[in-house]
Amino acid sequence: MALYEHVFLARQDISAQQVDALVEQYKGVLEANGGKVGRVENWGLKSLTYRINKNRKAHYVLMDIDAPAPAVHEVERQMRINEDILRYMTIAVEKHEDGPSAMMQKRDRDDRPRRDGDRPERGFGDRGPRPDRGDREDRPRRPREDRA
């Protein structure tokens, strides 16, 4: 059997329990057709880049699938019919990743600069820090060109 990663987006106005019910429904379809579902990650309600069918947000779900191609085609056919599913994508992979996906991993907070001013000193190109330019009163006035 082939290995797949399957991601689908569900409408924003359905509940998390309804999203879980959709996952169980499609798991049942895959298992009835000789496949099995490994990891299932619910990425939660996220903003969309652009509106899809008047939805600004969607529930994102990732499923690792080990199933024959006809089983995947049947799931995709049922997703096309279901009006709660906005988009889906199935990708064939060589092997499933171990551990959480990139969406579930949190960025290491130590890598980001803190907001309290403890940032590395910013330089002024190769010349070092920006020189103090002084107050405006210290500079000579420019001659004004009168226009005729």
Automatic annotation (TrEMBL):
| Name of one Pfam family that matches | Ribosomal_S6
The organism's superkingdom is given as Bacteria
- Which Gene Ontology terms cover its molecular function? small ribosomal subunit rRNA binding; structural constituent of ribosome
**What GO biological process term is on the record, naming one?**
translation
InterPro entries assigned to the protein according to its UniProt record, in alphabetical order: Ribosomal_bS6 (IPR000529), Ribosomal_bS6_sf (IPR035980), Ribosomal_S6_plastid/chlpt (IPR020814), Transl_elong_EF1B/ribsomal_bS6 (IPR014717)
**Keywords of this entry:** Ribonucleoprotein, Ribosomal protein, RNA-binding, rRNA-binding
Q: Where is this region: Disordered?
A: 94-148
Record keyword rRNA-binding present: yes
User: Its function?
Assistant: Binds together with bS18 to 16S ribosomal RNA.
The Swiss-Prot or TrEMBL record describes its family as follows: Belongs to the bacterial ribosomal protein bS6 family.
Quote the protein name from its UniProt record: Small ribosomal subunit protein bS6
Originating species: Rhizobium giardinii
Q: What is the gene name? A: rpsF
